[in-house]
Structure formats: structure tokens, C-alpha cells
């Protein structure tokens, strides 16, 4: 019964009120001088025969679409000098790759409006979190082999996190028997 109702609703053609909309628009009082009360009824019927009404010719739509900034995660596949891939610098600045292959990042909003956040919330914001597997694969594609190799720094605060002994695949030391 429900399926029949859905198929019946899908087969109904849209109703256009061209003459009704035209009567409403043209019979309005013309006391609003700032508003354009004489709108072409083609807009309401959905017909696009008139080229002046298309979105491509609308200056306001074009101005908005030109000012949009689309985020780009592009990788230079071939450099002009040596023909090698290049690292996306934003990935290296915002994320850190641990030696066992996972990427970590800081929490979002950790410096914003700290005056209204409680002490436990501030403590949680100072912590780092792992990125998910999709983002890990994406970040691995965005960097070169240099950034995937282990790095050794003096007094590295992330030193205990570069190894993962609790997981059997990444374990380096033999497991103690219980």
C-alpha cells in the first residue's frame, strides 16, 4: 500500500500556476516603490526560455560565486626542476606523524574563549588526538618519504608515543610473560 502511494506521488506532474501567479503580481498595490512588483511569471513556472533570467547572466550570482574560496588539498605531482613530488606544507605544520605511522593533531579551538571554559575542558583541549584512517591515508599522500621516516629530536616530548608496544604488529620488544 505504501509503495503504491509513493509511486503515485512520484508520477504526479508538477502544477504550474502561471496565470494565477501573474494575476497576483499584477494586481498588487504599487505603494512599495523600492520593491520591484512587476516580476515576470516565467520565474514562478520554472521555464527558462528567457536568457536574461538564467543564473549565468545574473551579476549577483556571479559575484558571489567568484568570491567563494574552495579549499584545495592539491599535491604537486611533478616539480618543474627535478620532476619529483612536493610536500604540502600545511600538512607538516598542522599534523605530526609518529614513527609507527599514525598522524596526530591538536584539538580544535584550544586557544579560543578560554575565559569561559572550565579547567577540565582546558586540560582536554591541550591533549592531542589521532586522525582517522581516511585522513591518515590522505596525509601520507600529501607528504614525501622524508616526512614518513623516523625523526629524532633532542628532548622530544613525543618520544614515548613513537613506539606502540601494546599492539602485536608494531611491537619491538618481546612481550613479558605473565
From TrEMBL:
Keyword Mitochondrion on entry: yes
SUPFAM superfamilies: L35p-like
GO (cellular component) term, any one: ribosome
GO molecular function terms noted in the UniProt entry: structural constituent of ribosome
Keywords associated with the record: Mitochondrion, Ribonucleoprotein, Ribosomal protein, Transit peptide
Compartments where found: Mitochondrion
Main location: mitochondrion
InterPro entries associated with the record: Ribosomal_bL35, Ribosomal_bL35-like, Ribosomal_bL35_sf, Ribosomal_bL35m
BP-aspect Gene Ontology terms: translation
Name the UniProt record assigns to this protein: 50S ribosomal protein L35
